[in-house]
UniProtKB/TrEMBL annotation:
Keywords: Cell outer membrane, Membrane, Signal, Transmembrane, Transmembrane beta strand, Transport. Coiled coil: none annotated. It comes from Persicobacter diffluens. Residues 1-21 form the signal peptide. It is a multi-pass membrane protein. It comes from the Bacteria. This is SusC/RagA family TonB-linked outer membrane protein. Residues 113-215 form the TonB-dependent receptor plug domain. It is found in: Cell outer membrane. One of its GO terms (cellular component) is cell outer membrane. PROSITE patterns: TONB_DEPENDENT_REC_3. The keyword tRNA-binding does not apply. Belongs to the TonB-dependent receptor family.
Length: 1008
């Protein structure tokens, strides 16, 4: 019996061995011209066993005798062959026409990528979708050359997106087109199928007055032919402050006081106790005066980030369907801040004969928390004070009003958050319905109706609370109610015709559009309520105040447009665009303007003299010229004059009246931008290397500015009365370089993509104005920036420091002391005043760059994304609060190195309780290098093998971990060198903005 069992086991072993026998197959993979194709993936189906062909297309691979082998390469149709006892398998791949003729959306139509003659960038949507952000604009940062994105740290906050630099002082935000809807909000990243960025006038002219700052075209997903597809994705993460600031704790604060007590001064009004007395109080009565509060720790904590996205799609020869549900939550790192959004995307298309009809619908519902930054007040608070009033358990002390330790009247940041109720809701509905008729091959007519609705309601209620006696007011309640309604509808009709004969390819498009916009807003404020009711402005006390305001804007835009594309033999390419826009915003006779563009391309690689350079896949030269326009605001008929108050003497008595403050130039018209550019596209070694370079030269003219009117006009002071007219001009030039390298080595694959942007802007006219002032803050009302002809927009303007006066110096001016800051007397008049100010830095970088590295090994994938900025300056306004060594505000730990006779520092001045020593002047003391290199995102994922998933009929299952804002290399001393500002003239000012968070998250993707 034992021998039978042994024989059976031996037989079973040999049968199993035979069933799993391996064979070695060799062969060659050829292209459509019978030339060996290198880099082809040769994979045993259902396994991770594989290899790639060598430079001549040869390969060798061990597989099981019953195996099937798949041969695949980018740009070619895949082939699967059964081994079937063969040891040599030779295959020939055919070009994948769909992939080679990749279609790119170009505005009111599409074109093959290889036929493009203008600067259009394609953003990989997979790269966008894998970054944990609340909006896709944030994920665009560094993805393509020529596009700059500066993020706001607030949850759901905006992003400042600029294409090819600054096009106007009045703003440089691009036009967004989502499924054909102008200015529609972007969909969720997971719902995006393609992103095209139109960067030059040659491509943007088809959008006329909307295209001066570039165009971002977003297309949402559609169903694909095959079985019904279901997908699910979720990301769960936590957020934290990426770089905290180092402020004095209670012990250090006392040390700071003690060290500088020798130069302490009594407050000017003489009513406050001296600083040494405060030291004694804090040390001798720690229960009441020595709280060691870290206000930044009280303000910032751990945030959370989560997204959920589910979609269902299907398609057939009769149409396609796509539905998705998306929800994302972001509880911010600042107490009380947050953002949540729920959205639904529905796309349907039906085909019957010559007719195609469809609709795209997106609905979203947004809730925002109290996202205003409280960093400034947290920086200033003394660590000796506590969050809650010790004399009233659980109640806030709004003004940190312990008068014995502090008389700064600095608001309690925690009280301002916890004592407010913010109910901010936004509802958006965007959609389009279309019909397309194709009566004959190549001829199409299309009609679109687009709709966008926005409802915003914001209720803000400040509840009554305990306040310190040094605060400016008694306990009160306040309420704000703001509402906004936006209605936008667009009607579009286009007709297109395309024909190919012999060596000629021709296509043409004509169209008409009509757009109507209406915006209605109402705002109301009231205070001193008898009851706490956050949703009512009723119940006010008799002596309460109430203000009501609002506005209504209505305008229309009507346009005709056209495009012609032609090429000969696919080598010589030509494109012309034209659009004429008319708007109700301007006076009659100035409402219409036309925008033409022309671009040319030469596919050099298709010439016969390039036949010997078979390693060159594509070499194309491009050039273009175009003129595009820009509308600014709702001017013209909507706003003729502004009024200022003025005093008059009537019958010997002073009477307050009004005077005209500003008027609109009756000849006011469009801003225009003329663009010239050249470029080159290069691809070699079967697309292993891809390289693109573009140079652009933009001239913006007729920028709308408010220029001063002489007082002789009778309109009042020339500093208050202005005329709004086309007066400004600027020039910006730049160079964009991008490149990609792909390499395949067996199971290991990787790709490297880089993008560099060099851009310069120079103001060439301000309509006679000597300069424009910007960057005004509460503490710098004269502004921190100037814009002047011959210079960049918004350069920092201030005093130049020259170290610190030392004891041994003999040139110390009267009124100054050793330890005070030395300022340069630039005009040599022997005194330091406003005439000694000069330009001290620019917030605009010399260049920006990015590097994306993707690695793959079997089922593993690793992605690294670096982004960097070089050459820009930052005005660190936060140091105004933490390094002026004055009053009772908390300070940076750096002040522990303040000047004393025994510590003759040349960087940190002496302690003083007065501002007369000018420590807080706008000077290069607060200017810092804003250059940085950041690991913006790192992701590591694993995709389960298909042989496991096929058993349970799952198409894809991937798990991954990702870190956003992983680390930053910079010399900037603040929390983050990426400074968001919505005002063109206030860029680069680090003024207590909501900081960018670091996000650590886990993700899961599943597809059926």
């Amino acid at each position: 019996m034992q021998f039978k069992i042994l024989n059976f086991c031996i037989a079973l072993f040999f049968l199993s061995t035979a069933a799993m026998a391996q064979v070695t197959i060799t062969g060659q993979v050829l292209d459509e011209t019978a030339v060996g194709l290198p880099g082809v993936s040769v994979i045993e189906v259902g396994t991770v066993n594989g290899t790639v062909t060598d430079f001549n297309g040869n390969y060798e691979l061990k597989v099981s005798e019953a195996a099937k082998v798949q041969y695949s390469f980018v740009g070619y149709q895949s082939i699967t062959e059964a081994v079937a006892g063969r040891s040599v398998i030779e295959v020939q791949l055919k070009p994948d026409v769909v992939m080679i003729d990749e279609v790119v959306v170009v505005g009111y139509g599409a074109a093959k990528k290889e036929d493009l003659t203008s600067a259009i960038a394609i953003v990989e949507t997979e790269e966008v979708a894998k970054i944990p952000v609340t909006s896709f604009e944030q994920a665009l940062q560094g993805k393509t050359a020529g596009v700059t994105v500066i993020q706001s740290g607030a949850p759901g906050g905006a992003a400042d997106v600029r294409i090819r630099g600054t096009g106007s002082i009045n703003g440089s935000s691009p036009l967004y087109v989502v499924d054909g809807v102008i200015n529609a909000p972007a969909p969720s990243p997971e719902d995006i199928s393609s992103i095209q960025i139109l960067k030059d006038a040659a491509s943007c002219a088809i959008y006329g007055s909307r295209g001066a700052n570039g165009v971002i075209i977003v297309t949402t997903k559609r169903g694909k032919k095959g079985d019904v597809k279901v997908s699910f994705k979720t990301v769960q993460g936590v957020q934290s402050v990426a770089k905290p600031l180092n402020l004095l704790n209670a012990d250090e604060f006392i040390t700071y006081w003690n060290t500088n007590s020798a130069v302490d001064k009594v407050y000017p009004n003489g009513s406050s106790i001296t600083r040494p007395q405060r030291v004694d109080l804090a040390q001798n009565d720690p229960d009441n005066y020595y709280r060691n509060t870290s206000w930044l720790d009280e303000l910032y904590g751990m945030g959370s980030f989560s997204t959920y996205n589910a979609s269902v799609s299907s398609a057939s020869e009769h149409g396609n369907h796509y539905f998705s549900f998306d929800h994302r939550d972001n509880n911010g790192i600042q107490k009380g801040s947050g953002f949540s959004q729920t959205s639904v995307q529905l796309n349907n298309e039906y085909k019957k004969g010559i007719f195609t009809v469809g609709e795209n619908l997106n609905a979203r519902f947004i809730n925002r928390g109290d996202n205003s930054s409280r960093l400034e007040t947290a920086l200033r608070q003394s660590p000796l004070l506590e969050v809650y009033n010790p004399n009233s358990t659980g109640r806030h002390d709004r003004w940190a009003g312990n008068t014995e330790l502090d008389n700064s009247n600095n608001p309690n940041p925690i009280a301002s958050i916890e004592g407010r109720n913010v109910d901010h809701k936004e509802d958006w509905l965007t959609g389009s319905a279309y019909m397309e008729i194709e009566p004959m091959e190549g001829l199409k007519f299309r009609g679109n109706y687009n709709l966008m609705l926005q409802n915003t309601d914001v209720f803000v209620k400040e509840y009554a609370r305990q306040e310190g006696t040094t605060g400016p007011s008694l306990p009160t309640t306040r309420a704000n109610h703001d509402s906004k309604r936006v209605f936008n509808q667009q009607l579009e009709f286009t007709g297109s015709y395309a024909r190919t004969w012999e060596n000629h390819n021709f296509s043409a498009l004509v169209g008409f559009t009509q757009e109507d916009n209406r915006t209605r807003a109402l705002d109301a404020f009231a205070d001193r309520f008898a009851v706490d009711d956050p949703y009512s402005l009723k119940g006010r006390l008799d002596d309460a105040s109430m203000n009501v305001g609002g506005y209504y804007i209505e305008n229309a835009l009507r346009s005709v447009l056209g495009r012609v594309m032609y090429d000969y033999q696919g080598k010589y390419l030509f494109t012309a665009n034209f659009r004429s826009d008319g708007t109700s915003n301007f006076q009659k006779g100035k409402r219409w303007n036309s925008y033409p563009s022309f671009s040319f391309g030469w596919r050099v690689s298709d010439e016969s003299f390039m036949d010997s350079y078979d390693w060159v896949d594509l070499l194309k030269l491009r050039s273009g010229w175009g003129r595009i326009g820009r509308r600014v605001g709702a001017m013209g008929n909507n706003q003729l004059t502004l009024l200022n108050s003025a005093n008059y003497i009537i019958n010997g008595e002073l009477v307050t009246g009004v005077t005209i403050g500003s008027i609109i130039d009756e000849d006011l018209t469009w801003e225009t931008s003329t663009n010239t550019g050249v470029g080159m596209d290069l691809s070699i070694l079967r697309s292993k290397f891809e390289f693109t370079v573009d140079y652009f030269h933009n001239l913006s003219d007729g920028m709308i500015l408010a220029t001063r009117i002489p007082s002789s006009s009778g309109m009042g002071s020339e500093h208050r009365s202005v005329i709004i007219t086309n007066a400004g001009a600027l020039k910006n030039t730049g160079l964009e370089i991008s490149g990609t390298y792909n390499k395949f080595e067996g199971d290991f694959t990787y790709s490297l993509t880089t993008a560099l942007t060099f851009e310069r802007t120079k103001v060439t006219s301000l309509g006679g104005e000597p300069f424009l002032v910007g960057g005004q803050t509460q503490y710098y009302r004269d502004g921190l920036t100037r814009t002047e002809v011959g210079r960049n927009i918004g350069e920092f303007y201030g005093y130049v420091t020259d170290g610190i006066y030392q004891v041994e110096d003999t040139d110390i001016p009267v009124g100054k002391s050793p330890g005070d800051i030395r300022f340069k007397d630039l005009n040599g008049d022997g005194k330091i005043d406003a005439e000694d100010r000069t330009y001290i830095g620019s917030p605009m970088p010399d260049f920006t760059g990015s590097l994306t590295a993707n690695f793959g090994y079997k089922g593993w994938d690793l992605s690294l994304f670096f982004y960097g900025v070089y050459g820009n300056k930052i005005f660190n306004h936060n140091r105004y609060h933490t390094e002026t060594l004055s009053k009772s505000f908390n300070q940076s730990v750096d002040v522990l190195n303040a000047w004393t006779p025994d510590n003759p520092s040349n960087t940190m001045p002496r302690f003083t309780d007065q501002h007369t020593d000018n420590y807080d002047l706008a000077s290069d003391r607060f200017i810092e290098d804003g250059s940085y290199l950041r690991l913006q995102n790192v992701s590591l994922g694993y995709t389960l093998p298909s042989k496991w998933l096929d058993r349970v009929q799952i198409d894809k299952c991937r798990i991954y971990a990702t870190v956003q804002n992983a680390f930053t290399l910079t010399n900037f001393s603040g929390m983050d060198p990426e400074i968001y500002a919505s005002d063109m003239l206030s860029r680069g000012i680090n003024n207590a903005q909501y900081p960018l968070a670091r996000t650590v998250a886990l993700g899961f993707e599943l597809g059926f």
